[in-house]
Amino acid sequence: MFFDVAAVLFDIDGTLVDSTPVVERTWRTWAAKRGMDAEAILRVCHGRRSEDTIADLLPEAEREEAVAELAHMELTDLDDVTALPATTELLPALPLNRWAAVTSGSQRLMRARLTAAGLPVPKVLVAADDVTRGKPDPEGYLKAAAALGVDIRECLVVEDAPAGLAAGRAAGARTLGVATSHDAAELTADRVIADLTACAIDVTENGLVVRA
Questions:
Q1: How many domains does one find in the chain?
Q2: N or C: which end of the chain has fewer CB within 10 A?
Q3: Are 10 and 48 within one domain?
């Protein structure tokens, strides 16, 4: 399948970077302190902002402190963060005005994880602190396309989580799912691949051609 697009908008966690061990470890520690079911949290937290997940779990008065605690735990635990297959070859070859990242993590955390994984930090990175509504809301993807100066309908969103793919569809972009953290059957996209080793990107005069 070919996608002829102006730009590619990538999610980070689970799409470019494997941070699953860190995410699961920090959420389990956080949940254990509160006597909560970590497995239930892990079933719904992937692809969402931490503050949105925590808002479903705690009363409003406790949320700010809980979000800050989780953020600190994540920032001090980068040892297991690694680049996912093919990302170290694909990303450096892309012009900076042709790709962006849209993430449910904070600017500080996502820049730290990309650096820890040895991946480039994009010129346009829309993070949790840049939006008022997280995925599956399309706000982040719409902001990224606008920052690149391209029409969202001419973008390809690459995501590993149902919430992120829903955000891409709601924004009006085409979607490519990578089954790195969820079963392919759970992902609704124009195309689903195992990981980015099944993807090639050619730079053209007017944009990119993505072969999946």
A1: 2
A2: N
A3: no
Torsion angles phi and psi, residue 73, rounded to 5: -60, -40
Range of the domain at 180: 2-19+81-211
Q: Which residues pair with 3 in a beta bridge?
A: 210
> Which residues are known catalytic residues?
11, 13
Enter the DSSP assignment of 101. Answer: E
**What DSSP designation does 66 have?**
H
Rounded distance between C-alpha atoms, residue 180 and residue 147, angstroms: 28
pLDDT tens-digit profile of 5-26? 999 999 999 999 998 888 888 8
pLDDT exceeds 90 at position 79? no
Distances (CA, A) of 44 to 10, 54, 84, 86, 90: 20, 11, 22, 27, 29
Q: How far apart are CA 80 and CA 62, in angstroms?
A: 29
Residues 29 and 13 in one domain: no
